[in-house]
Amino acid sequence: MFFQSCKMAWSAIGANKMRTFLTMLGIIIGVASLIVLVSITEGATTSVSEQISDIGSNYLTVSVSDDKENPLRLSEFTSMLQDDAFSASSPAAMTSVTAKSGYTDETMRLTGVTGGYFQIMDSQLAYGRFLKQTDVENHSYVVVITADTATEFFGHENAAGETLTLDGRKFLVAGVLSGEDSDTLSSMGGSQGDSTENTSVTLEGYIPYSTMTRIADNVLDITQFYVSSADENSMEKAEQTLETILLERFENEEDAFSIVDQSQVMEAMENVDHTMSLMLGGIAAISLLVGGIGIMNIMMVSVTERTREIGIRKAIGAKRGSILSQFLIEAFLVSILGCAAGIGISWVILKAAEFFMDGSMEFQMSMEVVGIAVAFSSVTGILFGLYPASLAAGKRPIDALRHTT
């Protein structure tokens, strides 16, 4: 009996293909919206989270907003953070310079740091060496550059030992960062200040902080620095120790500085992802409800058109359950077919989005979201098909046979 009801429901759907398609359209749009919006949100958040994760999550960022007319200088900074809770520390200050090598002349982003900066960011060298403490103490004119910068100015990545002119001063290229670390530090630098990019790469280098104070008019006091924890599992202890040191330094004024834990940024991103997914999913679910109303509307029209058919079936012995199941199955099939089409369209849209993003971001269709879409569509089809089906099953045979269309 069930298979017979399925067969009749399928025949009824096929008899009015255009009307069935228009009925399915609401479900198709709803499912596609749900999957695409949630997938794009998750893809974008994952991309940002990966960049933050690549930078590292076991360090603290400190910004000094009020030095109490007692600026923090490099000599004091080095001694102030001598504590077992910290593994490395480094100030950071940024400026833009004009870099020149041979006939290549470009604007370049320059960051003043100490050797601890590269340890904090877990950087890897492709060639040469990192900045040393002696470079900082001697105000040496040495620079560590990214792989893209080396290629741009020297035509190859192995530029260690070459000379690069920055604002008219000659700097020795001490080291070249690996390509992956170049991207990581570029994203880190992008969050600190202005960046200057040429058409395809970001040009940047890292020099001793002491040297930066000599060549940049706007850099002298330390207003931003990084501290890494000696134990990744004891970030809270490191933050508490750092806060105690800074409170003592800045006259117990909590508003004089701010400390940001990178792991907290990761948690915040996860919370944002969850909230955005729920919000966008809720918006898309409204489309599914609208599609369900469309199904109910068309099913009621179908019941009216097939009143005599219902009367004939009842007259020859069809039970109420048989009529009810036929129309319920019909509503369910319309809903689930629309869901399948919506999933297929979602896949095409996500692949097209990846193509236009030129591979910079990946959008994966979440099987969890697909499962939710299928479940929601199924329930929508059954719920909104229940009333028309009950209406059809409740008709008296004699009244149905008298009905004229």
Structure description:
- With 405 residues, the protein is of the alpha+beta class.
- It contains 14 helices and 11 strands.
- The strands form 2 sheets. It has a 6-stranded mixed β-barrel with strand order 3-4-9-6-8-7. It has a 4-stranded antiparallel β-sheet with strand order 2-10-1-11.
- Helix 1 crosses helix 12, helix 10 packs parallel to helix 13 and helix 12 (320-356) runs antiparallel to helix 13 (367-393).
- The chain is elongated, with a radius of gyration of 33 Å.
Q: Work out the strand percent.
A: 15-25%
Uncertain segments are 190-199
Specify the structural class: alpha+beta
Q: What is the global morphology?
A: elongated
Q: Order the strands across the largest sheet as they lie in space.
A: 3-4-9-6-8-7
Number of strands: 11
Number of helices: 14
Indicate the mean pLDDT: 80
| Residues in helix, % | 55-70%
Secondary-structure element string: HHEHEEEHEHEHEEHEHEHEHHHHH
Number of domains: 2
